[in-house]
Amino acid sequence: MSEPEHGTVQIEVEADIAVARRVVRDVAGKIGFGITETTRIITAASELGRNVFKYAGKGAMHWRILQKGTASGVELSFEDHGPGIADLDAAMREGYSSGGSLGMGLPGAKRLMDELDVKTALGEGTTVVVRKWRRA
Amino acid sequence: MIEGIAVLKVRDVLLVTMPADPDDATVCALQSRTLDAMEQHDVKGLILDLSKVEILDSYFARTVAETAKMVTLMGGETLIAGMRPSVAITATELNVTLGATRTVLTLDRALDMAGGISRRKTDTKNGHVR
Predict the structure, then answer these.
(1) A76: β partners
(2) A108: which of A88, A115, A118, B5 lies 20 to 30 Å off by Cα?
């Protein structure tokens, strides 16, 4: 079996959030997601990419095409070495934000995607992984 | 790429068209461009055409809502026109709102409505009732 397709977008300046969106659009197109699913995935990527930029200053988005039996999907992993999230439960709650935003980043992305996992450690950074499966 | 925003004066309103996938700098420019144009032209309000927009994340939505609020403070009215179904679905799931901003299905309807607003006002002045 061939290596699954994957890639990385560095998030260092604000405009890189738009670059990440364009890459995600191409990947979603390759997998064959419909317009609404594609919009959900790009929007989630935009929220999570902005979190990286806002809280950590810089980081990266890694993308990977998933294959499980006949199902295909996309995995996006947003990784930073920023301050980490002090209260993850609160960060997952609606309307909570420590960064003066609307606090829709994590709960919003969770609703738009099928799966969301967060790994965070204070002073070490945060990794948010989201996945979306294409319904056949 | 700020030139992606088109600002046109059409009769009594400003018509502002947003590009498909604006970056943060472009979204930010929406506010200043719009408010500057409001000051320069004697208009009743603003039609914000989102029919090309493919992604409305929380930052973009907040800027749109804030701009509409500022236009209201300046004495104008904002109509948002042409939001795509996929964008409306995603914005709802993301739980973003556009505040109290009025929305219309198409740019055509927005222009009709804007024409109606200015006609009504003119008619009142001339003493006509339509």
Answers:
(1) A63, A130
(2) B5
Write the CATH number for B67. 3.30.750.24
pTM for this prediction: 0.88
Question: Does the beta-carbon distance from A35 to B86 stay under 8 Å?
Answer: yes
Task: Write out pLDDT tens, residues A57-70.
Answer: 999 999 999 999 98
Report ipTM (2 d.p.). Answer: 0.86
CB contact under 8 A, A36 and B24: no
Task: Output the CA angle A102-A34-A49, nearest 5 degrees.
Answer: 30
Sheet holding A6-11, edge to edge: A6-11, A59-68, A71-80, A125-133, A115-121
User: Closest Cα of chain B to A22: distance in Å?
Assistant: 9
What is the extent of the structural domain holding B75? 2-126
* Cβ–Cβ gap B55/A102 under 8 Å: no
Q: How many domains does chain A have?
A: 1
A39–B contact, CB cutoff 8 A: yes
* CATH code, A100: 3.30.565.10
| B49 close to B103: Cβ distance less than 8 angstroms | no
pLDDT, tens digit (0-9, with 9 covering 90-100), for B69-108: 999 999 999 999 999 999 999 999 988 888 878 999 999 9
